[in-house]
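Same chain as my last thread, 266 residues:
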Amino acid sequence: MGDLYALDFDGVICDSCGESSLSAMKAAKVRWPALFNGVDSTLENWVLDQMRIVRPVVETGYENLLLVRLLLEMRVPSIRKSSVGEGLTVEGILEKWSDLKPVIMEEWGEDRDGLIDLFAKVRDEWMDHDLKTWIGANRLYPGVPDALKFTSSTIYVVTTKQSRFADALLRELAGVTIPPERIFGLGSGPKVEVLKQLQKKHQGLKLHFLEDRLATLKNVIGEPELNGWNLYLGDWGYNTQKEREEAASISRIQILQLSDFSKKLK
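reply #2:
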């Protein structure tokens, strides 16, 4: 029996936090230019540092824009336009993001599709004008390129990133080309639905799903139809100590270390 691995991208294959935070900063300046009046490089660097801490809450890339703005509002009360900014901490964002996000979206008058389009446009322009720097703002986790190159398993990428960005990074950083029909990106539907498609298509293979978001793995557990999948939480990705401890208490989930990743893919 062969193995099929469905792999998340950001936080499993690629540490994209540097690039996504910089892209979000660029996009925020386009979307809310007045917000950045008087914002100097020291404050921008503080925001970028905090973005790495709050990165575990991000499910879809556009949320990075919201986090950039929320962090600025937390630091500069005079620009605050949301009711949640006062007294909010980075820890508070980590704990309450799912409650905070709809509130700030409404108070700022933003819509998801508009922010997704802007975030993609800014990334495309950066890639068009300076591909080398865009690529350089990302890094693949150690050992991952060789694991992907030499595996005998069937590999799919299942991500909320837009497929063209994942494809470009795999080619440029890993020298790996995964056929487009094996990359399920933003717009492919919920990950649980993608996994259902894959298990129908590949009956007879042993199924493995590797994620760095505990919430996504819990969604899979909530679907009885997906009981055949082996589930892994990558402890090197964008998750917190609290989430790793919770995952350790769930029998369906195995916590995987980066050093074991390439051995798993074999």
